[in-house]
Amino acid sequence: MSEKVTVGLLGLGVVGSGVIKLIENHQQKLAHQLGCNVQVKRVLVRDLDKSRDVDIEEDLLTTNPDDVLNDPDIDVIVEVMGGVNEAKDYILKAFTSKKHVVSANKDLVALHGPELQDAATHNKCDFYYEASVAGGIPILRGIVDGLSSDRIQKVMGIVNGTTNYILTQMDSEGVSYENALKEAQELGFAEADPTSDVEGLDAARKMAILGRLAFSTPVDLEDVEVSGIKGIELEDLQYGDQLGYTMKLIGYANFDNHELEINVQPTLLAKSHPLAAVKNEFNAVYVYGDAVGETMFYGPGAGSLPTATAIVSDVVTVIKNMRLGVTGNQFVEPHFKKELKTSDKRYAQYYVRLFAKDEAGVFSTISALFHDQDISFKRILQTPVNKGEVAEIIFITHQTSLENFQQALEKLESLDAVLEVKSYYKVEGDAIS
Amino acid sequence: MSEKVTVGLLGLGVVGSGVIKLIENHQQKLAHQLGCNVQVKRVLVRDLDKSRDVDIEEDLLTTNPDDVLNDPDIDVIVEVMGGVNEAKDYILKAFTSKKHVVSANKDLVALHGPELQDAATHNKCDFYYEASVAGGIPILRGIVDGLSSDRIQKVMGIVNGTTNYILTQMDSEGVSYENALKEAQELGFAEADPTSDVEGLDAARKMAILGRLAFSTPVDLEDVEVSGIKGIELEDLQYGDQLGYTMKLIGYANFDNHELEINVQPTLLAKSHPLAAVKNEFNAVYVYGDAVGETMFYGPGAGSLPTATAIVSDVVTVIKNMRLGVTGNQFVEPHFKKELKTSDKRYAQYYVRLFAKDEAGVFSTISALFHDQDISFKRILQTPVNKGEVAEIIFITHQTSLENFQQALEKLESLDAVLEVKSYYKVEGDAIS
C-alpha cells in the first residue's frame, strides 16, 4: 500500500469545490483513519479559465476526460459533473480501467444505477453514491448496514430542500406559493428554473434509489408516481394546520408481499409525525422497519460541504476496502421480484376541500356518496361563504383504498350541488385534536 | 465458507429473546444478504426452567458458559447478559478462542470498551456494540462510517428513554415528577429502582461511548459530569415553555483543540432545536460536524426487537467480514490526546429562577451583580407572589463561561434581598419569542 491514495475529480462545481476543501481541511483526520494521505491529482473541468470558489493549482485542471480516466496513478474517481449520458460513459470507462467510483449524481443513479453496479462488480471495483440521496445524511448506509437485519416496510422522505423551504415559508409566514418560490430563488434555495424541484421530479429520483436499497427490489424511475407542489394553495395549508396537520412534499414507498407502492406527493402530515418537525431546506428520511419500528435520519440535503462529507466518507470506505483487498464486494442482494400495487390495494386517508351550494341536505348527499364507496369521515369543517349562497366544505376521510376514493371523487364532481372540488391531498398519521 | 454461521448467546432476557425472534423471522433476508443461514446453537441462561417469551428448543439452553464459549462450531458470540465483571470475563475468553463478539452492554463498554477492543484486535476478532447506545438507532455506524470524513465538533443526545418519557409527560400533561415517574413505572418505561435512569448514570455511559467514537479520543466514564432529573419541578418546565424552551435530559459532548467537555444535565432546549421534537420514550442523537453541519439520528432507544435489530445488524457485519477474510480490522484510529475543559472555557446560556424580596431596586442589584461577572440577560420574567411581599424572578442569560456563572450564583445566594435561588439550568439554542 502506497503512502497516498490518489483521487481524480470529474467536475468542479459547487460540490466538487467542497470535495477539494474537505480533503484539504480534514487531511489529518483522514490520515489518522487510513494510515495514508488522500490527494486529488487531476480535475476535469469544462472551462480552464473560469474563476472558482476554491484554491487549486492550475495544472491539476484539464478539459480532457482521458487525463483523469486513463491516469494510472489515480485509484478513485469522484463524479460530481452531473448530467446523465456523458457521466455514465466516463464512469463505465473508469470501471474498465479498474478505478473505483464515488458519485453524487442522483439523475444518473436513479436511471442507470443497477447497470453501473453490475459493471463495477464485473470489474471488481467499488461504486458508492451516498451523496445522491439527501446530501449529507448517511441514509444509504443507515439502510444497507445499520438496518441490514431488519425488514423495511416503509420509507418516507422529505428529500427535496427547495420544496420543503417553500412549504415551510408558506406555513410560517402565510405567504403564497409564488412569493415563497421567489424568496427561495433569491436566497439560492431554488434554481432559476425550479421545475425539477417543484414538480417533484428530483424527489422521485431519490425515492427510486431509496426504494431499491430499502426493499432489495428493482425500482425504475417510471415506477414513481409524481405530483409536485406547483401552485399549491395557502388555504389548504391553513385548513390543514387548523385540523392538526402540516403540508410536506413526501416521497412515500412501501413494500409488502412483493408489492410496491412508490410516489411523491404533497401530503398533510400529522404534526406529531417525526417528519413534521423538519423545516426549511433540511431533509429527513423516515424508515419503518418490521422490528426496529420508527427511525428517522435528519440533516442537510444539499450544500457544498455537507454533500462533500457524504462523498469523502464514501472515498474513505473505498480506501479501507482497497487496503483490505475487498473492493467490488458490495453484497448487492439477489433482488426480490416486484409488482406495482394496484389502486385497490393502496390505502390512505384523504383531505378534500370543495365548494357546494349552501342548501339543506347537501352535506348528507355527499356523505351518502362516500358511504356508498365504503368511505367514512374523520373530521369535517363547513363554512358559509359568499353570503350563505356557497358553503366551503373540508373533510378528512378514514383509511380508504385509492380505487374507492377515486370513484367517490368522480361521482362527487358530477353532483349538481357541488360547484367545485378545489383540492385533495393524502393524509398521513393521526392528528391530536 | 460453510452454509451456515453459528451464533452463541450469552443471556436470554428481553433483548436475547428479541435476537432469537429476529434471526428466525428474518432468515430469508439474512440468507439473501449473506449467502448462508444464521443459526443460534447454544444459549447461556441462569435458570433452565424459567418460562420465556420465545419458543426455543430446550437442549439449546445451558447454564455452563463453557458450552457456549468453547464450542468450536460457534463463530459469533452475542453478549446480552448485562452486568460488568462476568460479561467481561466471558468476552475476553471468547476472543481468546477466536470468536467474534457483538455486545449490547453499555455499562461494560463504557467502562472497559478500549480494553476489550484491544483484545479483539490482538486476536484478529471483531467487536461491535451498536446496541449499547440508543437501542435501534444505527448511530455508532453513523458516526464511524457515515461521517468518517468530517470533524465532529459536538454531540448532543437524548439517550435515555425513561427520563424523556417522564419529562414529556410532565410537559404535556402537567403532572409532577413523582406522578410521571409512577406512570412510567406502571407502563414499563421505568424500572422499580429508577436510580440509574433518573440520576443520569445510564445516559452518561452512552455519552462516554459516543464521545470516544465521535472525537477519536479516550473518554472515561468519570470524565462525564452527571446531574439527573430527580425531583425536577413542573414550574421550571412551565416557565421554560412560556419562554420558548422544552426541558430535556441532554447528554452533551464537545471537543475542540484537544479539549473535551462532556456531561449529562437537564437542559432547556429551544423548541426550534431538532431534539426538542423528540417525545416520550424515543431517543435521538444530534451530531454537529464541521462540514456537514446539523444531523440527527432518531429512533427507539430500547425494547426487545429494536435493540435486537442493532445486534443482528452487527452480526451481519461480522459475517460479511468473515466471508471477506477481514475480521479484526476495525480501523480504530490512533487516539487524539485529551484535556478536560476547565470551567473558564465552558460557555453556555443559563436559566435561573429565584425568590427575592419584592422591594424597589432588588432587580437592579441582581442585574448589577451579573453585569460585574460579564453576564447579561436575554429574557426576564418577574411575578409578585404572596401578596407582593415576594417576587419570583426568572431570567435567561446570554452566553457566559461556567466559571463566571458559578461565581455570580454564589454571590447571588449571599444577597440579603434574595430569599432562595430555586433552580438553574443550562439553556441550548435561541427560542423564537
From TrEMBL, chains A, B:
Cofactor(s) listed in the protein's UniProt record: a metal cation
Catalytically driven reaction(s): L-homoserine + NADP(+) = L-aspartate 4-semialdehyde + NADPH + H(+)
Transmembrane annotation, as ranges: none
Binding site for NADPH: K106
Domain of life of the native organism: Bacteria
A molecular function GO annotation: homoserine dehydrogenase activity
Its EC number(s): 1.1.1.3
Statement: the UniProt record of this protein carries the keyword Metal-binding: yes
One of the GO BP terms on file: methionine biosynthetic process
All residue ranges annotated as the ACT domain in the record: 351-426
Binding site residues for NADP(+): L10, G11, L12, G13, V14, V15, G16, S17
Pathway terms, separated by semicolons: Amino-acid biosynthesis; L-methionine biosynthesis via de novo pathway; L-homoserine from L-aspartate: step 3/3; Amino-acid biosynthesis; L-threonine biosynthesis; L-threonine from L-aspartate: step 3/5
UniProt-listed PROSITE patterns: ACT, HOMOSER_DHGENASE
Catalytic residues of the enzyme: K206 (proton donor)
UniProt keyword terms in alphabetical order: Amino-acid biosynthesis, Metal-binding, Methionine biosynthesis, NAD, NADP, Oxidoreductase, Sodium, Threonine biosynthesis
Residues the entry annotates as binding L-homoserine: E191
Protein family according to the UniProt entry: Belongs to the homoserine dehydrogenase family.
PANTHER family associated with the record: HOMOSERINE DEHYDROGENASE
Protein name stated in the entry: Homoserine dehydrogenase
